[in-house]
Amino acid sequence: MPLGERPGDKSESRYCGVETEFDDDIPNLLTSNLSFGAFDFVVAPMMDPSYRPSLVHKNSSGSVALPFAGSDLVLSPSQWSRHVVGKISSWIDLDSEDEILRADSETTLKQEISWASHLSLQACLLPAPKGKSCGNYARCVNQILQNLNNMQLWLRIPLVKSEDDSMDVNSDNLIDSWEIWNSFRLLCEHHSHLSIALDILTSLPSANSLGRWFGESVRAAIINTDAFLTNARGYPCLSKRHQKLITGFFNHSVQIVISGKLVHRLPKGNTAVASNSDGNNVDGGQGHPLRPYLDYIAYLYQRMDPLPEQERFELGYRDFLQSPLQPLMDNLEAQTYETFEKDTVKYIQYQRAVCKALLDKVPEKEALTTTTVLMVVGAGRGPLVRASLQAAEETGRKLRVYAVEKNPNAVVTLHGLVKLEGWENIVTIISCDMRHWDAPEKADILVSELLGSFGDNELSPECLDGAQRFLKQDGISIPSSYTSFIQPVTASKLYNDVKSHKDVVHFETAYVVKLHNVARLAPTQPVFTFTHPNHSTERSNDRHKKLRFEMPNDTGSAMVHGFAGYFDATLYKDIHLGIEPSTATPNMFSWFAIFFPLRTPICLHPGSSLEVHFWRCSGPTKVWYEWGVTSPTASPIHNSNGRSYWVGL
Amino acid sequence: MPLGERPGDKSESRYCGVETEFDDDIPNLLTSNLSFGAFDFVVAPMMDPSYRPSLVHKNSSGSVALPFAGSDLVLSPSQWSRHVVGKISSWIDLDSEDEILRADSETTLKQEISWASHLSLQACLLPAPKGKSCGNYARCVNQILQNLNNMQLWLRIPLVKSEDDSMDVNSDNLIDSWEIWNSFRLLCEHHSHLSIALDILTSLPSANSLGRWFGESVRAAIINTDAFLTNARGYPCLSKRHQKLITGFFNHSVQIVISGKLVHRLPKGNTAVASNSDGNNVDGGQGHPLRPYLDYIAYLYQRMDPLPEQERFELGYRDFLQSPLQPLMDNLEAQTYETFEKDTVKYIQYQRAVCKALLDKVPEKEALTTTTVLMVVGAGRGPLVRASLQAAEETGRKLRVYAVEKNPNAVVTLHGLVKLEGWENIVTIISCDMRHWDAPEKADILVSELLGSFGDNELSPECLDGAQRFLKQDGISIPSSYTSFIQPVTASKLYNDVKSHKDVVHFETAYVVKLHNVARLAPTQPVFTFTHPNHSTERSNDRHKKLRFEMPNDTGSAMVHGFAGYFDATLYKDIHLGIEPSTATPNMFSWFAIFFPLRTPICLHPGSSLEVHFWRCSGPTKVWYEWGVTSPTASPIHNSNGRSYWVGL
After folding, report:
1. With an 8 Å Cβ cutoff, are A544 and B102 in contact?
2. Distance from B314 to chain A by nearest Cα, in Å?
3. Facing residue for A636 by CB, picked from B186, B634, B637
4. What string of DSSP letters covers A462-480?
5. Which residues of B belong to the active site?
6. In contact, B557 and B604? CB cutoff 8 Å
7. Per the omega criterion (within 30 degrees of 0), is the bond before A267 cis?
8. Is A633 in contact with B603 (Cβ distance < 8 A)?
9. Which backbone phi and psi does B622 adopt, to 5 degrees?
10. Distance (Å) from the C-alpha of residue A640 to the closest C-alpha of chain B?
11. From the candidates A216, A405, A458, A508, which is the catalytic residue?
């Protein structure tokens, strides 16, 4: 049964499995491991571990059945697929120097996968590559992947590769097991059915090194009972760092699998006392010998806070690629306005900014005599008009408001709002593109919300440049400036989703996305800044920025699948608004991050730095970004001339 | 006029150019440089070098014409395109820290390229990147390349980048200028219109370092007059190493361009004495001041041996990708037989092998009494039958020959041949696939020519395994063994040709190709060996080989676009036959090399080695290769399950 009921959480990580020995009696194996609310699934060997194809050929003349555990009929199809993950024989070694072992391994691997497919299992666990070299193993798995339907292959990867684990006598230094995974998946071309089962032991690498895995397709974490400590009462527990890691797995849909034998002597009287030292058997029906470990994992699960409402709302958007809006070219729909208008945090920030600006513009003694001209450019259905009027009320300043909006459909709503609220004497509605409006007077304050996830990507600079004509020389723009930020990320899920389109266009497009299964490899750095009003004579909104990212030394190597982009805007003086992670405005939901993919992921090794260029370019009818990596190796320039992705003027 | 008439040579490298200063009077520039049989073309600046867009904007109010040299009307369209290569202003620096210089550079570059396109010039010379970083320069050139029709862009690259040349104050070690080229072309995605003009100065890097360039798209070599030495008579000449390099350029269609001033004081009485030290002017119509350098280059050209006939014949095949034959699945055409039968060298080797085998099989004293049974399997139109009968005659041994051929069309020719030559009593023709023939007796000698460029790639192993049934236990197979070889190569032309198909299939196909513009980066290594007859019980023709290539230390970095493949076959004892470069049989033309591409080229840095896997795999109806690089970075496994390229059984 599931580890617990966490409100809002419907992810796979509620289910916990157990790794078992070979057992020909599969129904009994399920009963002993799954009964009495114990585990949800077993990770069980499918083939007699003593089987070797090369021995069969010599000793038997007739055709004998392969020594699989049970037969397809001993369980129902749904039992097979819901409760059994096939464990591929762990003795196989496709990169062995021993030619017979190599051939036996390939034959067995193919037979077992074929059997697992026959049973419609959801996943098979592939043993970890034995040495540093995995070329032939990957070649064989890659062949299998080409013909696989829905089954996932979980490649077992030790989180820490201990030295004696390595069969490669030539290994002169410790192997970063991520490198093995990386080679394997590159050889298999990031195949979406190839994922990772991490082996968790006592020692853990650094937090940065662990962090890399959250951008990879980890499906399971196999925790050995050896990794558990003993608490004061004699029960198994995990170190703080292990606990944090497990919680991370829960939050990233990684299923936990308990492995190993009972190694804790429990206090007397506990129902789960093991009757033998053999681990994986039931002790006379009293309960599962590994129950204390399962209970502890369930405790960790149940201890987590429920998902905040915003997170729950955004669950369906996690790592889902969306095309950015084109609000200048297209008109937004009512539903879109509806959603964004609910972001109260954002409008409170705007209201605070307008308050400050009004207080700066109009001294207390002029409050009753001076009327400030405030123009909302891109008024939509009116939320900024409301925020501005509330600011006026709050500060006791008098306002004359112009609400300029190019979408005639939103203008309909605006008229209704003004009538409903009785703002007719204060608010003038202008149905016009701000770039072409012939204003009857100039504004003291220009308020706009034209920012995209990457700040300028919805063409706020071009719009506000166009509106600046009717801002007084000493007028204020809210926002007064905004800056975009990027950071390199591992994002294998996003990479695979982009790749699935099989064209260059999708690799040269920026996507709006709720980043979740992503590893952020270095702190963000600022890219482009725009300031308003801009009175310089030779202004251009084209930009070029070269950035150099250094990964923390203890991260190890990592794969850069692209760049996560954010923005931060200064609305007025100290009032800011943004999604740059280190300074993000809390509880604001109007913007997800933006993701710039790389056509070929770039592997960063420790000590090497990543040099990337971003350009903002423009033509008569469009604005676009180009990007490219120049170090450690040069990538193609992405989106040359805006051929794949652009924003229309 | 051309440098000379070299029989068989029609390449561009016959034409020699000269780099000039800016001259507004283009017709005069042409007259002074091209008259009297001097140079064939000029590399001339198109824009007044004092022009800066940022100054124009400030100083002029109206619209003035850009200060181009001349106008489009001063030359005829064909003069422009035949005699002028546009030289882009050398002051441009698109990666400067100075924002105004950067903007001026981009504007000027685009204006000049636009002008050159307007004139339909064949090529423009782009100045060398100023520093180590060339991201913005590449981005801008890449934008230009997207919209270019037929014009080539020659990026100037110094063969040796001297330290003071570098504008980058942070450069801590000498820059390998190949790295700059490599970054630039990766950023521009190996664009086929982007090529190289190498700047040749006094010092030359190592031969291995120079060799890399022959796999790149070098179009011109600009030789500065400073690079010339002075011979005993006071005339300019070049060092032996320079001479060898220039000859290499001639052989690879690289055009020579002379640059610089007259720096040699010629002996009195010479017509080409310079009347001033200013270099690029005519000395009163007497001749071109740089004439002595041109004459020396022409001397080097004329000194070359004419192309051997075989080379001349193969000229049209150079670097041209051909799909390998499928002689087992398809029947060859008469024309194909015709071509291959002309390869006398090959059949002489076969005849020598059969002679040796006959002498070994039949002692002198049994020569008249013993008849040897020789079967030609895959007899085609009979060349091996003839070679075998000639061997019998030469050794005085008696033969009974079976000619087995599956192609019914070739069998028609065979019958004609036997009748014509009167071989009816000696030769039996069998119209049958050797794998299915029910032979009336067993053979002493089995002769075949089933080898492809990669040895086993036309399925010789499978065919001979099938024929082995009717070879006596002590019988001889000619060939008795064969081995394939590979080596990593730079081959940008081949890479671009494969890439032009815009699919994965072509990148996972091996091609037969006459390799020419290719840099061989490391000595060949053996891949798969097959031996016949093969009496082992557990024989399989599947193979797996892991190879590790080390580049010579003085090569520098280089790009691996794929692998060149060859074979060597032992016909019998010491008689071999093959195309592996170090042991290739001279004057044999039946086989070009084979080329296995890489989907993403891999850059090899000094000291790093290249680990590559090749697999020979088989299924019920086909045989295929898979290949993949595992170090320095992992590539995808190419051609998984033979999805893109296979040979039918």
Report:
1. yes
2. 35
3. B186
4. HHHHHHGGGEEEEEEEES-
5. 449, 458
6. yes
7. no
8. yes
9. -155, 160
10. 6
11. A458
Report the b/e string of A167-188 with b at 16+ CB within 10 A.
Answer: eeeeeeeebbbbbbbbbbbbbb
Mean residue pLDDT of chain A comes to 91
Are A628 and B139 within 8 A, CB to CB? yes
Q: What is the 3-state secondary structure (H, E, C) of A180-242?
A: HHHHHHHHCCCCCCEEEEEEECCCCCCHHHHHHHHHCCEEEEEEEHHHCEECCCCCEECCHHH
Q: Look at B187 and A635 and tell me if their CB atoms are within 8 Å.
A: yes
Closest C-alpha among B383, B436, B387, B429 to residue B408? B429
Whole-number percent of chain B with pLDDT over 90? 80
Q: Most B CBs within 10 Å: which of A133, A139, A629, as the mutation test of the B interface?
A: A139
User: How far does A606 lie from chain B, in Å, by closest CA?
Assistant: 15
Contact assessment for residue B605 and residue B550, using Cβ atoms and an 8 Å cutoff: no
Distance CA B491, CA B212 (A): 10
Q: Is B599 helix (H, G, I), strand (E, B) or coil?
A: strand
Comparing C-alpha atoms, which of B220, B194, B213 is closest to residue B40? B220
Ranges assigned E (strand) in B378-535: 398-405, 427-431, 443-448, 471-478, 481-490, 511-513, 519-520, 525-531
Distance from CA of B195 to the nearest CA of A (A): 16
**Closest CA in chain B for residue A603:** B633
Residue B602 φ/ψ, nearest 5 degrees? -115, 125
B599 contacts in chain A (CB < 8 Å): none
Q: Kindly give, in sequence order, each residue whose CB lies less than 8 Å from that of residue B374, ignoring residues fewer than 6 positions away.
A: B354, B388, B399, B400, B401, B402, B443, B444, B445, B446, B447
Residue from B440, B217, B230, B457 nearest B323 by CA:
B457
Please determine, for residue A98, whether its predicted confidence score (pLDDT) is greater than 80. yes
Q: Is the Cβ–Cβ distance between B468 and B437 less than 8 Å?
A: no
Residue A595 tokens read as: 């993701």
B552 secondary structure, DSSP code: -
Q: List pLDDT tens digits, range B381-425.
A: 999 999 999 999 999 999 999 999 999 999 999 999 999 999 999
Complex confidence, ipTM: 0.87
Which residues are bridge partners to A44 per DSSP? Answer: A86
Of A434, A429, A410, nearest to A418 (Cα)? A429
- Residues B626, A139: C-beta atoms closer than 8 Å: yes
Contacts with A628 from chain B: Cβ below 8 Å: 135, 138-139, 187
In which region does residue A157 sit, left (phi positive, over 0), alpha (psi from -120 to 50) or beta (all else)?
A: beta
Mutate to test the interface with A, among B55, B136, B139 (most CBs of A within 10 A): B139
- List CB contacts (< 8 A) between B641 and chain A: 143, 146-147
Query: What averages of pLDDT result for each successive group of 10 residues across chain B (649 residues)?
Result: 82 93 95 91 96 75 77 91 96 95 96 93 96 94 93 95 51 74 96 97 93 96 96 94 96 96 76 42 64 95 90 90 82 87 96 98 95 96 97 97 94 94 96 94 97 96 95 97 98 97 96 97 97 87 96 93 98 98 95 97 92 97 97 96 94
B533 preceded by a cis bond (ω within 30 of 0): yes
Cα distance between residue B177 and residue B197, in whole Å: 12
Q: Which residue ranges form the domains of chain A, and what is each CATH number?
A: 12-307 (3.20.20.150), 334-449 (3.40.50.150), 481-648 (2.70.160.11)
Contact A613 B135 (CB under 8 A): yes
Round to whole Å and give the CA distance between B476 and B455. 19
Q: Distance (Å) from the C-alpha of residue A139 to the closest C-alpha of chain B?
A: 6
Output the DSSP codes for A537-556.
Answer: TT----EEEEEEEE--GGG-
Asked if A156 and A128 touch (Cβ cutoff 8 Å), the reply is: yes
Q: Count the neighbouring beta carbons within 10 Å of the beta carbon of residue A303.
A: 11
Among B389, B373, B376, which Cα is nearest to B472's?
B373
Give the one of A143, A600, A643 whose C-beta lies nearest to B641's C-beta: A143
